[in-house]
Write a structure and sequence with these properties.
The chain folds into two domains: about 5-295, Zn peptidases (Aminopeptidase); about 300-465, Urease, subunit C, domain 1, CATH 2.30.40.10. Helices cover about 25% and strands about 25% of the residues. The protein has twelve helices and 21 strands. α3 crosses α9 (about 260-280) and α7 (about 200-220) crosses α9 (about 260-280). The chain starts with a helix and ends with a helix. The mean pLDDT is about 90. Bound molecules: zinc ion (ZN). Zinc ion binds next to loops.
């Protein structure tokens, strides 16, 4: 067993137990990191503050000659690597010299971490900073304090290697096939010709080793991120300064909404890369990197295949693609989904992460509950809902509608009074309809979720929607 396999098995010892969700605030993170304040291993340094005056710190580990700079969450809703950084801090602080890798890294390298570069974005769990600027498009004009902080750190530290840690859209596919990308990598280009100079080659060769390592852990759901030159982004800017730069993008792993598996893989990838850099053992072989497919855009959350659709007197057979976007409530940080119909027609080049064959099923538009049937929230139970669905009613309003009801804890839409239903499919509007074979209901689509009408598992539906 190599040390990565061993680390894979002992990772849980270092996984930070206070970080369990993807969304947490700057103050949550500061509370977690407080335990390192008196550490002999991890040294903290204030770099500056964000637009909303949140402090951005640099954490330094090791005393070696080679310098590695890593930063995370310049996009506020991309926290996977921030969590992995804390797991790494735990590893360097608390592990014994497991497998000799730790001492070697601490001797040969100085590691500089900037976790959560965009704390104001993290507060709202959005991509942008408090000015609305995408920090990764601000490397040139430097109009945000966060971008200035990062570039100054690069100039002061002058690292040999830089790791630019992100999360990408989870619907990217592996090339043109139906697999969802787990992790995507890039050794960014620093000019339009995508020149490979010795520094970029080092990053490419290191990535070849990483991709080889990961195929065992990811079912080969690995891609290359687009290498088109983007002079406004940090990776491309820093790569142009003689620093071997690596972009890591965490995508999606099945049934892992909180991305804990990809966080673990981030931890492994970074320790592997650090050990290779420390040992000066980067194979002179770039093949694996260039063989790796690019991210493709061929996936939707759900595709209904060959549905009979009738609008006025026009009858057709179409595929219907539906996506669901994850939203957070800023007040109580609870999460919910909003669905949308993305495309209708011949969608044969595309794949659904979930697909259902609807041959012979016709699409029916839902009805809205009669005012006289209005219920209170606590009267809403599985029997009542089944009855509604039987009558094609997918929307109901409650006497005691509250803000919480938008999180739809049942396979039915709870809405406010003012509402009208369209008898047509509208692109970008939420997906709510019924699929019937003759007069028999087969499926209901509630807010983009497919519910098998004959087999509604209310417990799992509750979990799904929350
Ligand atoms: Zn990003």
């Amino acid at each position: 067993m190599d040390f990565i396999q061993q680390l894979f098995h002992i990772y849980d010892n270092y996984k930070e137990p206070m970080l369990t969700n993807r969304r947490y605030s700057h103050s949550d993170l500061m509370l977690v990191l407080k335990k390192f304040d008196n550490s002999n291993v991890i040294k903290k340094n204030l770099l500056g503050t964000s637009v909303e005056y949140r402090q951005i710190f640099l954490y330094k580990i090791g005393s070696g000659k080679k310098k590695v700079l890593l930063w995370s969450q310049m996009h506020g809703d991309e926290s996977t690597a921030t969590s992995a950084f804390v797991d790494l801090f735990n590893f360097f602080e608390y592990s014994s010299n497991e497998l000799f890798v730790k001492e070697k890294i601490l001797q040969e390298l100085t590691l500089y971490f900037i976790p959560m570069l965009n704390p104001d974005g993290a507060e709202k769990f959005i991509r942008f900073n408090a000015q609305g600027i995408d920090i990764n498009r601000d490397a040139k004009s430097l109009q945000s304090p966060e971008a200035k902080i990062l570039l100054k750190a690069v100039e002061d530290i002058k690292p040999d290697f830089a790791f630019n840690m992100h999360d990408q859209d989870y619907r990217w596919s592996v090339g043109g096939n139906d697999k969802v990308v787990a992790l995507s990598f890039l050794a960014p280009a620093f000019d339009d010709a995508k020149t490979v100079d010795p520094t970029r080659e080092k990053a490419i060769n290191l990535l070849s080793g990483i991709i080889k390592l990961l195929s065992d852990y990811t079912e080969s759901r690995i891609t290359r991120y687009s290498d088109d030159y983007e002079p406004r982004s940090f990776g491309d800017t820093i790569a142009g300064r003689g620093i071997s730069t690596i972009l890591v993008e965490a995508g999606r792993w099945q049934n892992d909404l909180e991305k804990s598996y990809l966080r673990k893989l981030n931890f492994l990838v970074l320790l592997f890369a650090m050990s290779r850099i420390a040992e000066n053992f980067i194979e002179n072989d770039s093949r694996k990197y260039f063989e790796t497919p690019y991210n493709g855009k061929f996936l939707f959350d759900l595709i209904l295949r060959k549905v009979k659709l009738k609008i006025n007197s026009t009858e057709s057979i179409v595929d219907i693609a539906i996506n669901r976007e994850f939203h957070f409530d800023d007040n109580d940080r609870s999460s919910y989904y909003v669905s949308s119909v993305e495309a209708v027609g011949d969608l044969s080049p595309f794949y659904g992460i979930e697909e259902v064959s609807c041959e012979n099923y016709s699409l029916h538009f839902p009805k809205y509950s009669d005012e006289s049937l209005k219920l209170n929230y606590n009267e809403l139970n599985s029997g009542v809902i089944r009855e509604y669905l039987q009558n094609d009613i997918l929307f109901l309003s409650l006497n005691d509608f509250s803000r919480l009801d938008k999180y739809v804890r049942y396979p039915i839409n709870v809405i406010r009074n003012e509402f009208s239903l369209d008898e047509k499919l509208i692109i970008s509007k939420p997906a709510n309809f019924i699929l019937k074979e003759e007069k028999i209901t087969k499926y209901v689509i509630i807010n983009g979720f497919l519910i098998d009408y004959n087999n509604i598992n209310f417990e799992s539906v509750n979990g799904l929607f929350l």
